[in-house]
Amino acid sequence: MSRLFMMLIMLSGVATPLQAKELRISASAYLSEPYTIYEKGVLRAGLVKDIFDELGLELGVSIHYVDLPRKRVEAGLESGEIHIAPVAHPHWLSKDFTGDWTEPLFMMRELLVMQASSTLNYQGPGDLKGLRIGTILGYHYPYVEPYFRSGATFRADVQRADQSVDMLLNRRIDAYIVHDISFRYFQKMDKRAALLRAVDLKNTGTEISWAVSKKLPVPFERLQAFIRGLKKSGRIERILKKYQPAEAGPPPLPAGKRD
Q1: What angle do helix axes 220-233 and 235-242 make, rounded to 10 degrees?
Q2: What is the value of pTM for the model shown?
Q3: How many percent of the chain have pLDDT more than 90?
């Protein structure tokens, strides 16, 4: 292929396969279902796989999913062990993180889940005083954090949201906090959901972006263009809807939209 022809392709903006052979994506089991769905130690499905399988096809690169512990994700991005952490927010990494952030892809809302028989009439975090609330180890909950710090509300950390379900049904906690995407998938897959009810925590929600390593082997703008395409085409809404029950109402909002 002549140099002139290659220059014409570059100037015309025609998409061409990238030279990079592989993108390494953090697909850690700690993200829980439906972000990552593992069977016998192999990633079989989930939001992360659906989205990045599409990215691989669009960019013409192979995708390698890495099950990295949460505490190693930031170091992995810095070293290039992984190139992208796909379920991320600037508040979840340290201020020393030197990588890049894509524009947000979708929004998660926090829910307060309790037993269906609970008499708790939740109107705001002040209603949680004196209660024991299930939370995910290492996660920060800005809306209720002042109550945790003061001791007015008691925090019960677990590794995964399904552990909070067990604790709640065994009355070891009064309620637990979970993101709407995870809870809707639980409603779809687990009959125990009929024993629970969820209310909006009444915060503003969290916009989810990708944390990207400076050692990314493809142009960063190609990631941004892919995300814009997912949102503009409605593909991200279709992917999200795949993991919620039919009766759950509209899917979670793509980033940038408000109800």
Answers
A1: 70
A2: 0.83
A3: 74
